[in-house]
């Protein structure tokens, strides 16, 4: 086998492609997260609802989304649902990521609410509050502190999962890298750098999460 002649100048020569892809990855991930949060809150609260039908629907959504591979979901949304709703690859990717991530956020919300002592709800109800008033004013603010760190961690997972949207032609870092490799044939250099970029994004967010966790822990103590 012949030796491989490394040439990392391809990175500097195409830096605009990597910058554009990185920004697009963060943009798509951020929008998907903003859509996934309300989805997660609705179905997370549905999981602990006193209404059996709501609990059943919420549980079915969570279990299905957690059991279906993200890649399959993205392909189905783009090629099936997207044909009826006229979704392009951009919004098909965002909706797919949001629906998928919403199921995991629902579990985070559920565990956060159930982590609040039941006495808090009972005390609020005994003071004259309705169930939803107690949930909105007493339980959810306390649950928010508990779910914030895992919610931030879910954003990190979302950034890594976003690499799969290249299969439906959504422009982001991975797709830009694929296109660059096809024209330069510098797969080792390109994919090594792309791996470093993903690591840099997720590691930075991890450090931010640690700071948030320390501040929340210090306030609670």
Automatic annotation (TrEMBL):
<protein>
    <submittedName>
        <fullName>Polar amino acid transport system permease protein</fullName>
    </submittedName>
</protein>
<dbReference type="InterPro" id="IPR010065">
    <property type="entry name" value="AA_ABC_transptr_permease_3TM"/>
</dbReference>
<dbReference type="InterPro" id="IPR043429">
    <property type="entry name" value="ArtM/GltK/GlnP/TcyL/YhdX-like"/>
</dbReference>
<dbReference type="GO" id="GO:0043190">
    <property type="term" value="C:ATP-binding cassette (ABC) transporter complex"/>
</dbReference>
<keyword id="KW-0472">Membrane</keyword>
<feature type="transmembrane region" description="Helical">
    <location>
        <begin position="90"/>
        <end position="109"/>
    </location>
</feature>
<feature type="transmembrane region" description="Helical">
    <location>
        <begin position="28"/>
        <end position="46"/>
    </location>
</feature>
<keyword id="KW-1133">Transmembrane helix</keyword>
<keyword id="KW-1003">Cell membrane</keyword>
<comment type="similarity">
    <text>Belongs to the binding-protein-dependent transport system permease family. HisMQ subfamily.</text>
</comment>
<keyword id="KW-0029">Amino-acid transport</keyword>
<dbReference type="GO" id="GO:0006865">
    <property type="term" value="P:amino acid transport"/>
</dbReference>
<feature type="transmembrane region" description="Helical">
    <location>
        <begin position="190"/>
        <end position="212"/>
    </location>
</feature>
<feature type="transmembrane region" description="Helical">
    <location>
        <begin position="67"/>
        <end position="84"/>
    </location>
</feature>
<feature type="domain" description="ABC transmembrane type-1">
    <location>
        <begin position="22"/>
        <end position="209"/>
    </location>
</feature>
<dbReference type="InterPro" id="IPR000515">
    <property type="entry name" value="MetI-like"/>
</dbReference>
<dbReference type="InterPro" id="IPR035906">
    <property type="entry name" value="MetI-like_sf"/>
</dbReference>
<dbReference type="GO" id="GO:0022857">
    <property type="term" value="F:transmembrane transporter activity"/>
</dbReference>
<keyword id="KW-0812">Transmembrane</keyword>
<dbReference type="Pfam" id="PF00528">
    <property type="entry name" value="BPD_transp_1"/>
</dbReference>
<keyword id="KW-0813">Transport</keyword>
